[in-house]
């Protein structure tokens, strides 16, 4: 063996050593639990106990129950609505911060301002919507004072609408950040080159700016999707138990010690997330963009 | 438009950034179908000048005329003036073909698809990029990027193309090749190139006409040999990087400098008294040898071999560097010892003198 190959082997074993803690961590806390919930989802659940006899009962139970399948559709519907809203509201904001604001300092200050709400706890931010949206909440009072409505709008709180409003407000910043980052990296000369070749603002936006910001949109969409699909707290706090998401079902099933059913929902949710993330990653090749 | 009318003209163009005056009442015009180079050190306002012509910035005062029309308030995308960026600014997500076709597809012109194919094809051919149409900008070399940037602009058939230090991002070898190529491409088309550069060799090599910009003002315009042999001020002589410049005092037709007093005949008006002698007209003599003119004692520092010539660096008593350019076609150079004292001299008739007491 030459000195070089010895050195190579040493380097190899050293880099393996560096990887070891991470690999160990992922195996123990990601791979093993996933394998475990898949396994448990096939266990036999009786009212008060669970045993490892394999059965399809919990899976059949999930797909034959209107409530469970309904929760799946509600989750998908709310996810699509919140994803669209965060994009519609977030993209213009990102465009302003990342592209139109010329000074890098001001852009950073604006991004930090977006993050300030995170200084309070998640639950407080969600619950703060109650006095805003309630029957005697701020919005209804203002609308009544202005004479725009006579009776308060009740649909504002404890409805799907309030859950959508709450989630959009909480997650929109995860859309703004990555998009603003990508927009900030666009070489200004490219935009000027497009102008010089005769393209107006609309053309420049659709042909240059939007395609170049797409990786940011995809990263933002992945952030928002992962968080919204696993949500249970916002819907719990703002829907008055009327909106049940897959996350809420997991919480109640675990609460009543129905481990097998909780695992079924967990597996479905994990599968859903994997499909969504894989789908987004197909849109752009993030490896080459970042 | 007749042939003699300038393709564009700047009239008293002034641009300020806060307290800084980047362009100070510039009057400038360019004839049709010419290669103009604009030489300026960094911070002279040369990029600002290009950006105002292109329409990326508006002048605070003054007017810009293009093909006889006042375009001062016309937005950039309606001007039809080409711009080639120093970093090329190719669209990274589009292929070479689509980069070149961008102006047709997204501009104000209405061109049908077969015409686009044909004209982009011709442009690709002209800049020698055939076969690379489907590559992405990241898959081609610096020189090829330069060609795409050029083709993308020229395919729109502009009457004026602004080139902002177009060779700055290329290595020396490629720069030389692109210089020739830029001139050749321009000669095939009826177009004026305004080439901005900080390199004096590039400006002199490329331009049919050279203008020198300093601190927001155009201080000299002329043919390359005119600029080179007859710089109008000591600043121009300094930018040309071919002159040893000495400060001194000019009084009653006599210049007193570090080399003693010399009688001078012709003096160009200048705000300071300066004496200039070209590198290749300065010679070094051993102590005690008879010299043809003024005698400047200096210590030999080092030499740089450039292939066709050698540059010798000397240092005077007041720590000023003096360069001698010895062309090897004039025979082998003398040997100098590092650290030893020599006497530098030149034919005083070949010196240029600038001063407040101008003779003209």
Describe the 3D structure.
The complex is a heterodimer of chains A (290) and B (360). In chain A, 76% of the residues lie in helices and 1% in strands. By secondary structure, chain A is mainly α. Chain A has a single domain (55-289), classed as MetI-like (MetI-like fold, Orthogonal Bundle). In chain A, strands 1-2 form a two-stranded antiparallel ribbon. In chain A, helix 10 (201-229) runs antiparallel to helix 13 (259-283). Chain A is flat, with a radius of gyration of 24 Å. The model of chain A has no long low-confidence stretch (mean pLDDT 89). Chain B has 360 residues and is an alpha+beta fold. Chain B folds into 2 domains: 8-229, 3-Layer(aba) Sandwich (Rossmann fold); 242-355, Nucleic acid-binding proteins (OB fold (Dihydrolipoamide Acetyltransferase, E2P)). Chain B contains 8 helices and 22 strands. In chain B, the strands form 5 sheets. A 6-stranded mixed β-sheet of chain B has the order 6-7-8-3-9-10, sandwiched between helices. A 5-stranded antiparallel β-sheet of chain B has the order 17-21-18-19-20, with no helix packed on it. A 4-stranded antiparallel β-sheet of chain B has the order 2-1-4-5, with helices on one face. The mean pLDDT of chain B is 88. Chain A binds chain B through residues 187, 189-190, 192-200, 203-204, 207-208, 211-212, and chain B through 54-56, 75-83, 85, 87, 89-93, 102-103, 105-109, 152-153, 156.
